[in-house]
Amino acid sequence: MDQNWNSNQSGGNGQMGPSMPPVPNAGMNVAPMLTPQMAGAGAVPVNPMAPPVPDSGKKSSVIETIILVFVCLIAAAAIVFAVMFYMQYNDLQADYDSKLASEVAAAEKNQKEIDEKDFMDREKLPNYSFTGPSDYGSISFQYPKTWSVYIHSDGTQNSDFEAYFSPKFVNPIDDEKSRYALRFIIRNEPSDEVMREYNTKVLDGDMTSKIFNADRNRISGNIYEGTIEEGMVGIVFVFKVNNMTGILRTDAETFRKDFEALVETLRRNN
Question: Which of 1, 144, 205, 208 has minimal Cβ neighbours within 10 Å of its Cβ?
Answer without folding.
Answer: 1
